[in-house]
Inverse folding.
């Protein structure tokens, strides 16, 4: 089983890396890009012995404790069989 965690900055949180990406793309001629936000994707391989509901619960705990800074980031979990 695999869990994919998508982490992104909450709305209103400054994203200097996203601004740098947008500015650089504009300088490269991609003027249609008005803004960019940079996040991260974390793929976790889970053992087959865990059920999907338990996997979702455990990965949520992992996000709350380590994978996301919940003060400034939000996350979404996709558990794939």
């Amino acid at each position: 089983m695999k869990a994919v965690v998508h982490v992104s900055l909450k709305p209103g949180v400054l994203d200097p890396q996203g601004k740098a990406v947008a500015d650089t793309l504009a300088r490269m001629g991609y003027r249609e890009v008005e803004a960019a936000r940079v996040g991260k994707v974390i793929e976790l391989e889970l053992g087959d012995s865990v059920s999907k509901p338990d996997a979702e619960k455990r990965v949520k705990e992992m996000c709350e404790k380590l994978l996301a800074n919940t003060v400034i980031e939000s996350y979404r979990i996709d558990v794939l069989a």
About this structure: The two ends are 5 Å apart (CA to CA). The chain has two helices and three strands.
